[in-house]
Amino acid sequence: MSRQVVITGLGTISGLGIGVEALWDGLTSGRSAIDRVRAFDPSGFDAQIAAEVDAEFKVNQFVPKSYRKATKVMARDIGLAVAAADQAVRDAGLITPGVDAAQERTYPGNRTGCHIGAGLIAADITELTEAMSHATDASGAFDIHKWGESGMEQLTPLWLLKYLPNMLACHVTIVHEAQGPSNTITCGEASSGLSIGESLRVIQRGAADMCFCGGAESKLNEMAFYRQQLMDRLNTSSNDTPAAAVKPYDTHAAGTAMGEGGGIVTLEALDTATARGAKAYAELVGFGASHTVYPQGNGLVPDPAGKGIAAAIRAALRDADLTPGDIDVVVPSGAAIPEWDTADVAALSTVFGDALADVPLWTSKPFVGNCGAGSGALDVAAAAMMLHKQTLPARINCDAPREGVNAATAPSASRDINHVLVFTTSLGGQNVALILKRA
Amino acid sequence: MSHNTAPPHRVVITGIGAVTPLGHDVETLWSNLLAGKSGIGPIEHFDGSTFPTTFCAHVRDYDHRKFVRHPEYHEHVGLNTRFALGAARQAWGAAGLDDYDTLDRDRVGLYLGSGEGSLDFTNYVATNLAGWSAENRAIDSVAWAKEARQRFDRWGEIEQEANMTLYHLAQELSVGGPAYNCLTACAASTQAIGEATEILRRGDADVMISGGAHTMIHPLGVTGFNRLTALSERNDDPTSASRPFNATRDGFVLGEGSGMVILETLGHATARGATILAEVIGYGSSADAYRITDIHPEGRGPISAMRLALEEAGVTPQDIDYISAHGTGTKENDSIETLAVKAVFGEHAKSVPVSSIKSMLGHLIAAAGAVELITCVLAIRDGKVPPTRNLHTPDPALDLDYVPNTPRDTTVDVALSNSFGFGGQNDTLIIRRYE
To answer: Are residues B145 and B278 in the same domain?
Structure first.
């Protein structure tokens, strides 16, 4: 008999702020965090808007004093994950060495796992180009001989460690001395959902009692942002009206906006969580994953029939032993890219049939943008809060919804919510679905 | 909870495939490993002649189009995906799945530990320098973007994402089951195979394609490892540079390539009459949770991974006939891995052959563990253990049986394979002869 697993702590960081209360306040008040890009001058880019984390954010405020030196080797993505983990563990009322080394920890280190999704972390081009500017020839072109001889010495010896995707999880395991199973999943936007699912399985099979899981990413740097422009995913027509730019399931949807951020949730076995008297936001009852087979799309365009997405949703329903009629709210990917919205809706129609019109779809993208590997964790945190507060937060930017979907703009409202389905699709074709149940 | 009340499925390996510096197929690789050959030579992907390290282990003269059935799906793929396609197609064919028409492809999943694609270095550097404002010591983002528009190619950029190898394998083999890519540095493909095994045990798929592919032999990869002083700098003698467990070891040697295995529930494999190569019986995953830059001095992470794998396998250290070491050839790794093996195996430690094929292949980073597990499968099949090449000056502190320089004829029924990642993620797999 596998163990039941509950969500006991939520740590989020996004354009709506740090900590889950800030997220929830923004979502319920209908406030979009999407604004003109501040991280660099976006004037030369087609899309110039994004949901960025507060400029004041500094990760060294979220680690023990003894670990502050290590923040120097944390790329932005790593810092976001470390801060979110700190928020989550405190929210859960768990003691780890990262919270208070003087107190006895709640769970032994070797019963604490860590599965954190990550993206392709872009190097800081200012740091790198500064170094490379010392290795140019008379014409100003890069000279790889000079780079090999001496130029590379301009880089700090630990330079590479800032950018390995597994460093999100590794720093979290070190701060909290989490010595149990640990993994780093890199499947684009599906990364955090898959990581949460893997933590669920690890606890179910008894390999850990508690796990940190989720993901984080920032594409708010020139190179990563430009890659998104090359993929034709970004809204380029609303640079002057950023808060209204992202319109999932609206017939005028015209592309997504990048965000930065992510979330870490603490999962615990119900038996051990109950034994310590923990509160639970929700129970995690279903998990399913799949890959889209649609070679015509080259990874860039989804299958319009949404078959892969439907397979993941059905697997999660089977895992939870539920039927579509049990689902009260769906938190879909909702990229606001027309082809991707079409795939979402096709998948949902396949699973829900005509009943789809009765199930509210709620999406985070108009608020916090597409946070890459952090997206799914923010969605799971929002879903857990919906169950906890019995409230469907505001829906914005959908004044002309697609036919047959329940996604229209609406203020936050109380609602009986027993099960929330969260699903995420990635650029590249990985699909993940999770089902949360009222605790 | 309606599921997972059934006892876990047994999981077997029914196909293996590899593309490596010592051969583009499993049998060539294996005969070269048993002959103690080295795949190491000068860096050819770029001009590394002035780098602190000028050599590596390349996959040479390889063409993935010899293996794939749908070359039109993969026109823009980078090296790591090319390696993966060849290895996966070999494994798939070897498992007898090419012509198995009744396969339920939604019950076939993928769990890879594949690396990111290689950066388009020339255009990246040129764009960055064009955007560099010397007086401000900063990037002028507008100038940078203007240059970027002239230089970057959409397809080259998308292929750098670390989920794209997964995407291409799913399309090539037309499989829609659970799909993951993990990237726990040097432990990635061992972890992938372990987690794929758990998915099958639970019955969430019938077949999993698993393994890894990687190359970090590009200017910033070599730069990064050189700055860490992790690479051997024995430029005057590349083929002897990778010397795990040797007193004179000075770092690892970068390699590249891919290893893939087909994992299957025993029930599915026997029902279709598949040839079973070995059974996966144990998997352990742990974190050092110590420091970003150093391995825990007593090897608590590796010890924990090995113990968890033994526990899941239900075997004792005395049952292990061969250990495929992580054995990178860095001072720290080889010392601590030896300590960890001794802690887990006790008195028996000195009786178990322990070897590192990285002495011949270099370090395939994310792909290393899968190729090493494949050699464990072959060790069981042939009763031969590959040697640790370049072990002429034993380190007095390292006193296990490292199978120096020549292969060993010995019965192997149960083999254990270790992989430890930078940052402290550790994974161990145990496989057994299937009877």
So the answer is: no
Cβ neighbours for B136, distance < 8 A, ≥ 6 positions apart:
none
In a shared domain, residues B24 and B151? no
Do residues B130 and B262 share a domain?
A: no
Tokens at residue B387, please?
Answer: 């040697």
**Together in a domain, B222 and B354:** yes
Answer yes or no: is B276 within a domain. Answer: yes
A153, A295, A311 ranked by CB distance to B176: nearest? A311
Residue contact A73–B292, C-beta within 8 A: yes
Query: Could you give the number of structural domains in chain B?
Result: 2
**Chain A to chain B Cβ contacts (< 8 Å):** 300
- Whether B415 and B322 have beta carbons less than 8 Å apart is answered as yes
**Enclosing domain of residue B84:** 11-119+160-432
- Cα dihedral sign for A288, A291, A293, A299? positive
Is the domain of B285 the same as that of B169? yes
Helix residue ranges per DSSP H, B14-63: 26-34
Task: Express each pLDDT in B305-327 by its tens digit.
Answer: 999 999 999 999 999 999 999 99
For testing the chain A interface, which of B104, B183, B311 should be mutated: the one with the most A CBs within 10 Å?
Answer: B183
Does the ipTM exceed 0.90? Answer: yes
Identify which of B106, B141, B170 has the shortest CB distance to residue A41: B141
Residues A10-60: tens digit of each pLDDT: 999 999 999 999 999 999 999 999 999 999 999 999 999 999 999 999 999
Q: Is B290 in Cβ contact with A123 (below 8 Å)? A: no
Q: What is the reported pTM?
A: 0.98
Q: How many CA atoms lie within 13 A of A415 on its CB side?
A: 22
CATH number of A5-122+163-438: 3.40.47.10
